[in-house]
Amino acid sequence: MRKLMVFNMMSLDGFIADGQGDMSWAHQHDEEWNAFVSGNVSGDALMVFGRVTYDLMAGYWPTPAAAANSPLVAKRMNQFEKIVFSRRMERASWQNTTLLKGDLTEEVKRLKAVAGPGLVILGSASLVRQLTAARLIDEYQIALNPVVLGGGKSMFAGLDERVNLKLVDSRTFKNGNVFLTYRPA
Question: Among 5-14, 40-49, 99-108, where is mean pLDDT lowest?
Fold first, then answer.
């Protein structure tokens, strides 16, 4: 059975984007962090997005700017198989993308049951919240950034029940980021 993971950058006060949806605060470029990110994209994964995050990613990673700023990451993001969940989209144009319009929980259960690479959600707060509530996420990978935003978008706002997690790994970076890996307790 495939595992479903979340990988998100998060501010110290628990937001994955500021009030305007900006994430520029999360992009700290230094040699150690860049090597870590490059190592993460060197594996195989099926990327999972909600429509809003998909639109942001599809608007950046296929561009010359992305190839110039992060050549390996851009190459891999374009190569990865991707799924976007949306009831409003008519078609997904970013290469290697499948559009799913069915019930999120049922589709993810189906995807997890099929052999293949792990499923990785980037951003997509609404998906994270819904799949956390359905207890379908196997691992949360959070890169905690040394910034306080004072407000913004939370991955977990609106959850009806507490979800207990256990820390299974952590790593501190010279740029102040702390990478935390949690699994359901």
Answer: 40-49
Q: Is residue 161 part of a domain?
A: yes
Burial class for 128, CB neighbours closer than 10 Å (0-12, 13-18, 19+) = buried
pTM over 0.85: yes
CB 112 within 8 A of CB 77: no
pLDDT at 161: 93
The CATH number given to whatever domain includes residue 128 is: 3.40.430.10
Return mean pLDDT, the chain. Answer: 93
Under the banding of pLDDT at 50, 70 and 90, the label for residue 172 is very high
Task: Determine the Cα–Cα distance for residues 149 and 81; give it in Å rounded to an integer.
Answer: 32
- In this structure, is residue 20 part of a structural domain? no
Question: E strands, 51-145, where?
Answer: 81-85, 97-100, 119-122, 139-145
For residue 105, what are the domain limits?
4-15+30-184
Instruction: Report how far apart, in Å, the C-alpha atoms of 90 and of each of 8, 86, 140 are.
Output: 27, 9, 30
Q: What distances in angstroms separate CA 182 from CA 22, 83, 107, 142, 164, one per listed residue?
A: 25, 24, 24, 8, 10
Count how many domains the chain has: 1
Residue 36 lies in a domain: yes
Q: What are phi and psi of 112, to 5 degrees?
A: -65, -30
Strand partners, 50: 85
